[in-house]
Amino acid sequence: MNAIEVSELSKTYGQEIKAVDNISFTVDEGEVFGLLGPNGAGKTTTIKIITTLIKPSSGLVSVFGLDVLRYPQEVRQCLGYVPQAVSVDGDLSAYENLLIFSKLFYVGKRERDERIKFALDYMDLSQRADDLVKHFSGGMMRRLEIAQALVNRPRVLILDEPSIGLDPGSKKQMWKYIQKLNEEFKVTVLITTHDMMEADELCERIAIMESGKISVIGNPRDLKRSVGGEILTVKLSTNSVPSSLSARPTAVLGSLSIPPELGSIVSQEEDTLKIVTENGERAIPRIMDYFERLGYAVESVSLNRPTLDDVFMKYGKTSLERVGVYGEARTQRRAIVRHSR
Ligand SMILES: Nc1ncnc2c1ncn2[C@@H]1O[C@H](COP(=O)(O)OP(=O)(O)O)[C@@H](O)[C@H]1O
Ligand SMILES: [Mg+2]
Questions:
Q1: What is the pTM of this model?
Q2: Helices 94-104, 109-122: inter-axial angle, 10-degree rounding
Q3: Residue whose CA is closest, atom 3 of ligand 1?
Q4: What is the rounded CA–CA span in Å between residue 162 and residue 266?
Q5: Distances (CA, A) of 258 to 41, 264, 276, 289
Q6: Per-10-residue mean pLDDT for the chain, 341 residues long?
Q7: How far is CA 225 from the centre of its chain?
Q8: Which helix (H) or strand (E) holds 296?
Q9: CA-CA distance, 57 to 146, in Å (whole number)?
């Protein structure tokens, strides 16, 4: 069964603003799904409709088969929600915050204490249970917000830009908690973010959202692959130019080509070649062998993989001009260096 189903959903504010414009997606049970998009894309609006906080203008949304408009109470019972804005009260202790929350969610008196203790313990906040939240760091506050969502024992945890304003360390720590919850309790996770790294790290699938529309849905790996292959930068050693060519001072290497099954050379500047290939890691040793058999020594090879940033530019509005065929925008670099023998 789908944990969340969104079908042809639209939300218009006033007459003009189409915050969400006919989007459809499903989130499988147990999945970590990301809505990735810039500010104003419509992510929060989508989340608020799923969490029954606002009503759609048109379309259908259900959580575990329950229509959010017809069964708001039941839907809320299976959701944990961490909103974009701070949702804990600084003038109360961590424990008190969770107590209020558990009452809001009608957690029975007998269970309350146990659930609160469990949530605090799970998020490593037990030591600070009785401290005022206003003295907490940003990361601790966000952990408390997740603890708050856990009091409800949610089957689906919805987090709206959970890492905004956190330092890189707290961000990574938060990712670990989310992953742990997903693995240990099979909690389905829906997260919104404008952080490519976060989407890449956490999500099994993402939907790229812009101006109220979803432009593409897929798993990060496939989406990156769809940008158009991986780019190898191969530097040949000029000391090792075969003697038949070394008399020529410019373009010492001549114009090189490689067998098509290894990829294709898209640019050559003197001794440096850019090769586009489907699977860089597999192609590296074969390309090195190929050149070495021709008598060239390979000085270094580096592999550039497309990132979600490239994916975003490909499918987003600004895509086509900014991303060339080979997605040479911002890329991750891993260098594999082998010195000439
Ligand atoms: N209550 C509201 N009234 C009018 N316009 C709104 C309201 N909430 C959001 N919007 C507009 O809807 C669009 C989408 O907003 P939002 O869903 O918050 O995007 P995101 O969370 O992706 O940044 C934006 O243009 C925003 O200004
Ligand atoms: Mg938002």
A1: 0.78
A2: 130
A3: 13
A4: 40
A5: 44, 7, 11, 11
A6: 96 94 98 92 96 97 97 94 90 96 88 95 96 94 95 95 90 95 96 90 95 94 83 82 50 76 85 87 93 90 84 64 30 33 38
A7: 15
A8: none
A9: 30
Q: Can you tell me which atom of ligand 1 is nearest the CA of 11?
A: 12
∠ CA 238-239-240, rounded to 5°:
90
Helix axes 138-150, 94-104, angle to 10 degrees: 30
Alpha carbons 272 and 244: distance in angstroms, whole number: 20
- Residue type present at position 28: D
Residue 15 Cβ contacting ligand 1 at under 6 Å: no
Residue found under tokens 């075969």: 242
Q: Which residues pair with 190 in a beta bridge?
A: 33, 158
Going by C-alpha positions, the residue among 274, 289, 265, 275 that lies closest to residue 338 is 289
- How many residues are given for the chain? 341
- The pair of structure tokens assigned to 92 is 């109360």
Best mutation site among 44, 51, 210 for ligand 1 pocket (most ligand atoms within 8 Å of CB): 44
Pocket test for ligand 1, best of 9, 12, 15, 17 (most atoms within 8 A of CB): 17
